[in-house]
């Protein structure tokens, strides 16, 4: 871009910025807290048709009145508000992908010193989170994005025309980009034009990231789109799993954290599975086994118990097998109690239960 065009663009932006600030000072003095610059004109990565990205933080609902959307010459502009308690807060805890709008915001106007202080507090909160080493917090954020990508992948499989399938694949890609950002505990600093360039610079990415990424974009048929989406999703999911193994300290069973867990397993699932098998009710047995499997997985994740796989034994044509295996797993779960010196709270009479419950310390 030559310097004459660049100067014209910057001069036009200055006029637009001053126009918005003038309106804020005149009509919304108590309603608009901050006006700042973000986007391509902030990073310097703009072209001659780039729009002006302003972050306008409003204190009140009335502040939304400053919003407008218009076209000047052949460039569109969207003047909108960003509330403190939703977008700014979510950016500060790294729950939104547009964290750069907070961290790298160039403040152009603030109504009061306390407004600037409030912004800086939110900004520091985000910076503190980014300064943390890779671990449970950022990997849990990544899992949320991966789960969204899985939902989008389902849409690629359910779509009945190439447009809807391709749209869903873009959703897969978008969510996986954000997952990789979280897995590296960083934030996207530039726009969508630079997504691939940015994420390829990260330490923790799939080995063939660029190929996986572009294969979604370059896919021609519905089957190609679905396959490319799966490959990208599978690669990021596997990397995330390995990182969780490496960076998250696994819990270990203890006398205290196992308290009541076996009894809850018995309460919620044992008799359901026994009854469903006795009555040869495959649907009942299937959902009971599903519930038990979910509980056992939860105990593995939260308490550190061994991994159990009950669902592999479910067979609607041979229900007694899942009953047998479930009872074996319950016995193995008792071993978890034995290892930490805990006894199962199992009473044969009400009197025994009463004495224990009324006088728990005796």
UniProtKB/TrEMBL annotation:
Q: Which residues form the Polymerase nucleotidyl transferase domain?
A: 21-61
User: Superkingdom of the source?
Assistant: Bacteria
| GO MF, one example | nucleotidyltransferase activity
**Under which name does UniProt file this protein?**
Polymerase nucleotidyl transferase domain-containing protein
